[in-house]
Amino acid sequence: MTTKLLAVLALCVLIAACEPGSEVTKPAASPTAQSTATPAPSPSPEATAPTAAWKTGDKVKVTINGAAVEATVVSIDEKALKATVKVPGETKERTVNLSDIVKQ
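Predicted structure:
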């Protein structure tokens, strides 16, 4: 009888532990906090057009594995903010972030 009672008690504890708590509430945002929020500033023209600094055929330095390597710009993808470059001595072209490119 005691083992049956302990088994039922353990089963009740396991079921209670698995159920999500219905009493958990999230605090509502206050109206004053919503009205004082400032809109995000619009990006500057320099941030939206970083490709103005480079064009196809430019000789640049690219950071690859932490080291600056000379390369030539093959193409630029403005939407993805990436550029395809050709590194001398390598057979394949590399795609790198525009933030990893420095003009020579």
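Summary: The chain has a mean pLDDT of 76.
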